Amino acid sequence: MESRGTKRGAGKIEEAEPWNKLLLPASSLPTDPALYVGPFPFYRRPSELGCFSLDAQRQYHGDARALRYYCPPPTNGQSPNFDLRDGYPDRYRPRDEEVQERLDHLLCWVLEHRGRLEGGPGWLAGAIVTWRGHLTKLLTTPYERQEGWQLAASRFQGTLYLSEVETPAARVQRLTRPPVLQELMYMGYKFEQYMCADKPGGSTDPSGEVNTNVAFCSVLRSRLGNHPLLFSGEVDCIDPQAPTTQPPTCYVELKTSKEMHSPGQRKSFYRRKLLKWWAQSFLPGVPNVVAGFRNPEGFVCSLKTFRTMEMFEYVRNDRDGWNPSVCMNFCAAFLSFAQDTVVQDDPRLVYLFSWEPGSPVTVSEHRDAPHAFLPTWYVEAMTQDLLSPPKTPSPKD
Ligand code: GDP
Ligand code: MG
């Protein structure tokens, strides 16, 4: 997306004086899919830099203790019969969604590993650090017609950090979430419990609690165009039988969806859901998504594996389908827009990028609370590094 100048804002900025054009970053970014049609941009094969886990109390651990193992039911001609409502609500411990964690757990990992990141000294200073889920939202933006988003951005020691802010509309939706939707969220996690064991070769235990505080997160390195990326995403499980045991290739994403009975239902599934599934798994290089299809009674009676790299085939010939190039080109254009906008290096300065369907992405500037999101413990530890350069490691290190 080098020709940003022609693709961006057909508005007033085009009539500005040449000096104005050269010195001022664009004030908005359009999201119309037609503007992002083109060759697929460069996307480095994602490699895993490390991982971390969050426990039942949502406490961080710099290891894989929360990783679970893919354990599908035997394929002996019988269909599965998973009751996704079982245990609701008595064996459900939902995460407290009022707690805004922002990038904190990922920053904890970065702090712990900053001295030994691959890519050499200075790699982090040129990178963008964020959650996989935030990038997923960027990828699907050109096709999204319902939910807007806000992303806060700060530059610190060169690195650009992106952290989502819950929009007022999303907050209202969350606080007024109808009981059926709350139960549907539980059902998605319950499916994971039916499909995963705590140990390789172990068995599943659907009698236990569903605690959504627990998470295993992979930390990945990639690059989109000229934007080096360090991001983390929650991984559902590892397949101990996968052809390669090298992450992220051995990871499996689990999803549930309504059973489909008509061509119209299938078309809508391919257009909407597969786009989200593709974006989420393509980014970290997770090769397979295993879907459990639930009937109206909430039982999963069939499973289907979708290969991430083949999902586009379902919409390739659909005029109203999605196009992976458009998703990735838009994401690259947004990252360039953000890089050009967030020029000052200051962890207390925040640029808030806001988007609503049908409009371009706009940006506003903020200082300190409530939008500043880089925690003091992170900024101070990283600043100490610059004041006292690392000593020669002792033999014990
Ligand atoms: P996803 O792709 O949307 O599932 O999000 P990520 O994999 O990037 O998850 C990043 C972190 O955010 C992990 O610690 C998740 O447990 C957490 N997370 C995932 N979804 C949500 C959510 O809806 N709300 C909040 N507050 N955190 C979430
Ligand atoms: Mg999942």
TrEMBL record:
* Keywords per UniProt: Hydrolase, Magnesium, Metal-binding, Nuclease, Nucleotide-binding, Nucleus, RNA-binding
Name a GO molecular-function annotation. nuclease activity
**Which reaction does this chain catalyze?**
a 5'-end CoA-ribonucleoside in mRNA + H2O = 3'-dephospho-CoA + a 5'-end phospho-ribonucleoside in mRNA + H(+); a 5'-end FAD-phospho-ribonucleoside in mRNA + H2O = a 5'-end phospho-ribonucleoside in mRNA + FAD + H(+); a 5'-end NAD(+)-phospho-ribonucleoside in snoRNA + H2O = a 5'-end phospho-ribonucleoside in snoRNA + NAD(+) + H(+)
Per the database record, which ranges form the RAI1-like domain?
44-379
Q: Which Pfam families match?
A: RAI1 (PF08652)
Reported EC number(s) for this entry are: 3.6.1.-
Per the annotation, which location comes first and is thus the protein's main one?
nucleus
What enzyme class is recorded for this protein? hydrolase
Q: How is the cofactor bound?
A: Binds 2 magnesium ions.
Q: Where does the UniProt annotation locate this protein?
A: Nucleus
The record ties this protein, via InterPro entries, to: RAI1 (IPR013961), RAI1-like_fam (IPR039039)
**Cellular component, GO, one term:** plasma membrane
Q: Which family does it belong to?
A: Belongs to the DXO/Dom3Z family.
Q: Which PANTHER family match?
A: DECAPPING AND EXORIBONUCLEASE PROTEIN, DOM-3 RELATED
Purpose of the protein: Decapping enzyme for NAD-capped RNAs: specifically hydrolyzes the nicotinamide adenine dinucleotide (NAD) cap from a subset of RNAs by removing the entire NAD moiety from the 5'-end of an NAD-capped RNA.
Its protein name is Decapping nuclease
Q: Which gene encodes it?
A: DXO
